[in-house]
Amino acid sequence: MTTHRIRVGIDVGGTFTDAVAVDATTLELLGQVKVPTSHHHEDGVAHGIVEALDRLLEETGRVAEDVAFLAHGTTQATNALLEGDVATVGLIGIGGGPAAALTRRLASLGKLRLTPGKTLPLVYAHVGDPDDTASVRRAADGLAQDGAQVLVATEPFSVDRPEGEKAVVEAARSTGLPLTAAHEITSLYGLHKRTRTAVVNAAILPRMLATADLVDASITKAGVSSPLMVMRCDGGVMSLDEMRSRPLLTVLSGPAAGVAGALMQERISEGVFLETGGTSTDISVVRRGKVAVRHATILGKKSYLNALDVRTVGVGGGSMVRIGGGKVTGVGPRSAHIAGLPYACYASAEDLRDATLRTVRPMAGDPADYAVIEAAGGRFALTMTCAANALGRVPEGDFARSDQEVAKAALAPLAEALGVDTATAATRLLDAGTAQVGAVVDTMMSDYRLDGDTAVLVGGGGGAASVTPHLAATSGLEGRIARHSEVISPIGVALALVREQIERIIPGAGQEQILAVRAEAEAAVVAQGAAADGVEVEVIVDPQTSTVRAVATGATELRTQDRAHRADEEERLRTAAASLRTDPSGVTVLAGTPAHTVYGAEVRRTLRATRHPVRVVDADGVIRLHVSDARVETTRVAEAPEVLARLVRETTSYGDGGVRAPAVRLLLGSRIADLSGVLDPEPLLALARSELNSRAADEPVVAVLEARI
Question: Which end of the chain, N or C, is more open, meaning fewer C-beta atoms within 10 Å of its C-beta?
Fold first, then answer.
């Protein structure tokens, strides 16, 4: 029997560090461990990471040489900002004449509020001529004497002319302090926002550098030879060296790990991921097989950090019910964990003897309308998890499951107070909690224009069963709890792809400039260890902001799952038919490659108008692409440029909004090349040619085109 190598994912939380081992070939979960996060150890969180790895290898019977991939996610950067535990930043502004006034205003960044009563520690110095080495060194030395622990250089228009910032960084190396230039953090215009992003990055840099060095040394000492990767806030991973220069990318990476797990393990292409803990639920979106990201708000201000678009609702598995006037008035935000109360559903039948309902004020300042029961075993909280167990919504083997009869007994006093049976009381409790989550889900589905016919709700986290099943039942959306939901975050870390995003503001960008941005993103992920022949690059050109964005993703190794896990033709057809909301007999196979099959149907709107929805299903039976109305054509690489030129010409629209090329996806080998972010036909076709260049002339190409109205 062949023993496959393993992928290890480690998620460093505020209280516990979770680690999982996943088979690198089958992606099967092989083992999981939990250790306390080692905040107070002399090696910090690095100690807990190594301890978790050692225990995981012991549990799975593996050795360090079996580790093919190792990545960790950490809340360290997020916690540092939340707690105000950051380094003093020395900001060197550059410029003479009018530019000097612009940069001098940046000293006000020292007013950024970290925590109540604490602002970002920042000292400022100005240099007029960046090439005056002596002046730069005097300024840098002065900042060091004023307490600066890290230096940032910034200059107006450095995105286009970075020479000044580079000269200052080089001259300031004599201080021995960590250094960074604003243009290295982001290449987008906006001096104040760019510098603010760079300054916040610098504030956490020394601490993150120290942790990176300790983790790297510890992992190497443990005998792991595979490169150490770190979770990013956009759902991918980056090399340790990349994290050393841009630690800000790890901020908000906790929720990103969970949705990465849902994306890679559950293979959802369109839906909403709900990661539910004891106190809250993080809600994020997967659209067309990609996580939804946006520029994050940090310290109350918009930044240039591209992070998962996650929205948090104060409802979790431990959220307590509130009552008044003989009805359920709400759920949360107070949870049993914060109130220091045990869940009633986890008590014994004897503990619940003689239970009576009371309302309490869990913490000072809380309203006195939170329901608890007083019983023989003490005081217990009535929670979302109690209600879910009473209704049988928690699957057998789930982390949150309790005895259903005990859960019913726990809710009996509440039911009596409401004048209803136990099932109705449990339903009303869940209705009140999931309504808050559902409102945010509805907003996000609208924001991202998710297709209600194909979108699914996927629950993760230890409290998943308290929210997702009931919300699915009441909303009419398909819903399920992710496998191994309690460790979905470290699974996401283990399965995440290397990711890099390059953004440039290029007014009137031509095809050569767009291709250059694409090539830069591709080269960046390859440099971080991604296999070159497996890299996928999505290019988006926004004509309103003149922004060219290239997002590259790739695996550190080409992963192929066992054939035993592949779906047969009948299963793939049923999957497509269910998504298309039609009988399999009404579904047609339109095209295919060894990795994907394209299914279509015909939907007649009126006597003259017909829509052709399409679903692309991969070999595992997972829908990788769904388009509401598409044109599909198969050709070969040799003929593809000419065929694509014709198809684009025939489906390009013209109107008051300008020229709008169709959204194009190309099925090539095992990949889906997404070119839908480009509206101009010429750059679109140039990108298509770049995707085809390395392919064999007789290789089949399937083009899926979606006309833009």
Answer: N
